[in-house]
Amino acid sequence: MQRRTILGGIPALGLATTMSRPLHAETTTLTVGYEKVGHLAPIIAAANDLKTAGMDIKLVEFVRYADARTALLAGSLDVAAVGPADLAISLANGSSSMVGIMGVGASPKYVIGRTGTKFDSWDDIKGKKIAIAPGSAVWFQFAATLIEKGIPYNSFTAVNIQGAGTNLDTALDKGEVDAIVTWEPFESIPVMKGYGYFAKNLDYSISKAVGAELGMLVANKAAVDSKRAAVQAFVTAYVTQMKLLGTSPAKFGEAIAGMTGIDLAVSVKIAEIIKLGPVITPAQIKAQARAFNDLGVIPKDVSGEIDKNWDGSFLTTAMKA
Fold it and tell me: Has residue 22 got a pLDDT over 50?
């Protein structure tokens, strides 16, 4: 599958055009779910811009994409950042309340090995204890890569760890596992602190089924219908900040540090790895839907339903603003 250009072609955007449209800011509240991860740093800046412009926007923090997905489907959120597979998962489980809007970024994804443990090739995972967050976006990437490489999932011991990425880092630091499959900033922290390293020969961002996507913005269908102007304003503000931070690793690093509380030196390293941009496309979501059904992760192939549950006009309008 042809990969996508990340930031090319996105013009400089301002909020004045969007915010000059009638938003009924006095009566419309937009509730946005997010996670404290580096690639979503533009959300904080975008929300601040909209608040300054007079829009009523409420941010709700979640630990996992799956929790934000559940809240969005329940109608508690208008917009949310979720995993690349969450649209397919929702449709396969009978819910059509989620509307895909845009991707948020991409990065290489390496298994993080414990210092002193050998991970030179995929064969080296055999017999090892590897911590994963079951059902997470990175787990989907990892599992899809193993399938494509013909590596049996039972060739290693999968240690399921729930909750925040700090729990995986702690397990690695204590020597309870040989490696972890996690997300930023919890990938870079073990490396920066010396108890882990990037196993760069074990890149699981290159599968055809999933790719290097880090997540996407989605909306509740009711919000798309009743709060369309507010949703558009948020997407435009987000793209503005995404472009600004994406072209300045220093500013991006500062934004990551401010959002997550992670040390600035670590945050700058993370900013150098992540490539912000609307990388994901409906075609890639369809490929994921088919692959996850083939893998038995979701109960049916919903690739034929993706187009009618994706609204690319928000991003198109934001790019032209």
Answer: no
